[in-house]
Every structure is written in C-alpha cells, then in structure tokens.
Design goal:
Largest sheet: none
Helix content: over 70%
Distance between the termini: 64 Å
Structural class: mainly alpha
Shape: elongated
CATH superfamily of the largest domain: Winged helix-like DNA-binding domain superfamily/Winged helix DNA-binding domain
Number of helices: 9
Length: 202
C-alpha cells in the first residue's frame, strides 16, 4: 500500500493519483465521518461528496500535492455544513487560552493515549464519543482515531495549536469522567446483586 501511494504521488496522471487516494483514505474518512455525525448513511454521502469535490478540483486543472490533508479539509468543511444544517452547537464558541500546549496535560501522555485508544476500540467508540459536545469530539477523533498531530489539526480546523490542546484536554477530561461514572455504576450494581444473592442464601 505504501509503495503504491509513493508511486502514484509522482505520477502525472490525475486519475491514477485520485484512485490511489481513494483506495488509501476512503475507509479512514468514512470512520471519521461516522464518528463525527453518528449517522452511517449520512457519513457515506459526505465521504462520496468529498471525493466528488476532489475529483472536480483536479478536472478543472488544479493540483493536489498531498491528498490526505486536502481530503480531510474538504470532509471537515462538509461536516461543519452538516452541523449548521442540524442547528447544533456552533464550533466557534471556544475562547483561546494562551501558553498551553499538549505536553502540559497529563491526560495527553503516551500511556493515556494507549488507554484511550483501547477505550475507543470497536463498538464502544460510538457510545463513548457521543457523550462529548461536537467541538470536543471533533479534535478527539482527529487526534486519537485518525492519528493527526496538534499542528495538523490546527491547520485543518483553522484554530491555533493552543486551542486544539485545550479542546483535547477538556474532551479527554469529559471522557474520563464519563468512563469513571459508568465504572462506579457497574460496581454499585454488582454490590446490589451480591447483597440480593446473599439474602436469598440465608
């Protein structure tokens, strides 16, 4: 796959490069859209629209030097349009905080990243991420599901790296609180069941 992408990136044939980009990134873009929108069918439509726009851009004589950031940018813009159509919370309401970067938060350490990745594995991803407001879910998905760095995210959603780090910090805090609350609730249910079972046995 990597060899194919490298070869296509040097090709003069726009169609060949486009088809390679589709093969390389369509699944990741769909996963991203599905997690952001919580609607599988709408995610399929938006990913289709993303590649349609990319192809139209190429057919009008423009060049795409790097397909991955270009496609994510188009996809992100379409998702924002979808949010606006749904009249959901605006993504523009978070104030910048100065002097903050990713390394300042313990929640963003490598161990935490691995733990979060495990938490977001499989079907649990949708349920857990749905608890986040859109403004935080966006950067958490970009960072931990799509694997983009803070600088890439800041360029993609057009905010400073400080804002990205603040949103990541707050989003992970909310996720952790949700996971801890669920864990406590399960433990309490186990205790209740244990007391009921003990009562029946005496």
């Amino acid at each position: 796959m990597e060899k194919l992408r490298t070869t296509a990136s040097h090709s003069d044939d726009p169609e060949e490069r486009f088809l390679t980009a589709f093969a390389d990134y369509s699944n990741a873009l769909f996963r991203h859209a599905a997690l952001r929108l919580r609607d599988r069918e709408r995610a399929i439509d938006i990913v289709h629209d993303t590649f349609t726009k990319a192809w139209s851009y190429l057919r009008t004589g423009h060049e795409i030097e790097a397909f991955r950031p270009f496609l994510y940018k188009v996809l992100n813009n379409l998702i924002i349009d979808e949010y606006r159509r749904r009249r959901e919370t605006s993504l523009d309401a978070l104030l910048e905080e100065e002097g903050v970067d990713e390394g300042d938060f313990a929640e963003l350490s490598e161990n935490t990243v691995e733990a979060l990745a495990a938490t977001l594995d499989g079907k649990k991803a949708f349920a857990v991420l749905e608890t986040l407001p859109d403004v935080y879910r966006e950067v958490v998905i970009l960072r931990f599901v799509d694997g983009l760095g803070p600088k890439e995210i800041s360029e993609l959603i057009e905010v400073s790296e400080n804002v990205v780090s603040v949103r990541l910090h707050r989003g992970l805090k909310l996720l952790r609180e949700h996971i801890e609350a669920e864990s406590e609730a399960r433990e309490e249910r186990r205790k209740v069941i244990g007391r009921q079972a003990f009562g029946r046995s005496v």
